[in-house]
């Protein structure tokens, strides 16, 4: 788990309890952000609100923010980089105090982020910086979801063990070059081939981020490789499930198929044997970490971690019984019984801020 720290100073801001919560897929019911007083308004630029892991992260952030008296304005880019640029500009126009950003296309989004920074808005990266030692750029802090490095290593070790160190592996990525997902696929390739006789056969890209999209491209890839693939490593659970459907249709049995996210569909697929393992990225924990860092950055606290990797967990048939449902966790956050400081499993450097 990575935690990198840099010091920042700013005028302390008072967090006022009792603020109303505003959240929808298209934004809040109010068009006005902070009025220069002590009430804090936080924008979220969600790249794909329909994706369960991203929705739960947003829901957890919003629940924690409500407990701290902050209002949230969330916008859904719907997997459209151009819309995400418009969303950032909309949040700037609404004078929010900070924006949580999961970038779809870092290059095309940069001018909009520069405009936000010039407007005095704090920028918190949500899987925005692909490497632990990467330049934060315009971001004041960044939270990695735990899949690019820790999750990739856990799955690679699992695949190597299941294949007894030999065989051909196919990767499944997203059709849009999201930086953290590209880092994940690179980690898959390097980690699974390291110290083994495993061959990385290449990758297929899911154009629609769903089961059907993965099923189609994996079916094509299996035909291209004449079904000589022993394992598939997908960037998310939907793609892993789609790959399993394609493999079954092709008559391929005993294939090792893994994914990431750890949503209920993914865990159910592990339990019933459709896929072999998944990484639970624990998005509710990511939401807690993002909220804690945002609060600390806006309060001008010293020693705020600049880069935090949210701890992820390997889920197999042997460990699936220990899984905490994401919606259950969000309910606990809303009730005030789960937080970074109390049962959330956040890194020490983050828990120290959640007082």
TrEMBL record:
Subcellular location: Cell envelope
Matching InterPro entries: Peripla_BP_I, SBP_2_dom
GO cellular component: cell envelope
Keyword set, alphabetical order: Signal
GO molecular function ontology, one term from the record: carbohydrate binding
Domain Periplasmic binding protein intervals: 42-302
Position of the signal peptide: 1-24
PROSITE patterns per record: PROKAR_LIPOPROTEIN
Family: Belongs to the bacterial solute-binding protein 2 family.
Name by which UniProt lists this protein: Ribose transport system substrate-binding protein
